[in-house]
Structures are given as structure tokens and as C-alpha cells.
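Journal club side-thread
Mid-discussion, someone asked how the predicted structure for our own chain would compare to the paper's figures. Pasting it here so we can look after the session.
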Amino acid sequence: QVQLVESGGGLVQSGGSLRLSCAASRNIFSIYTIGWYRRAPGKQRELVASITTGRKTNYADSVKGRFTIARDSAKNTVYLQMSSLKPEDTAVYYCNGVPFVEAAWGQGTQVTVSS
């Protein structure tokens, strides 16, 4: 079973930037579409960005133009570059396949955006 470890979260002011990383225990990014999800308090989990094996990207309307997903297959790592952050981006961010694999959820990384 693949293990996914997210990192890079933190506290940032509105308008700031963060880069999240998702490291996999083995090379899955050239096999599966990978997505970044987030769960805000009191809200359902939301898919915010995804990247296919062919590096085609897709974004939720709420982050389009502000977030960029990228993949480094040699490092078994997927990144989420987040810019122009807003308080409503506050959430725990996770990576997983698209569609997700229940057993592959990691601990996530907390992103908090202050106003």
C-alpha cells in the first residue's frame, strides 16, 4: 500500500504564498491522476487541483489562477503552489488519487490564512 506524506503547510497572512509537497513511498504519479484535496472546518472535503499522467491539470473554480499543481516523478513528489491566499483557503490539505483511495489518506498538512 502506498504511503502519502503531505508537508509545507503553516500560518500565512492573506495574500501570501505557500508550497505544499506530497511525497509518495513509491512511484505512482506516472500511473495515476493525483489530486490535492482540502477539508475546511464544518465543510465537506473538496478536490482543488489534479494532474494526470500526461501532466494535464485541472482546478476548482475557487482556486483557479491562484494555485498551481506540478509533479516531479523522479522525486515521487507532487506540489501545490498556492498564491494570493485567502482566509477561505484555511483547511487541512491532503493528496490522493483521483478517484481517491480510502486507505491512502495521509495526515494532511494544515494551512491557516489570517485576514
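Post-session note: The longest strand covers residues 18-24.
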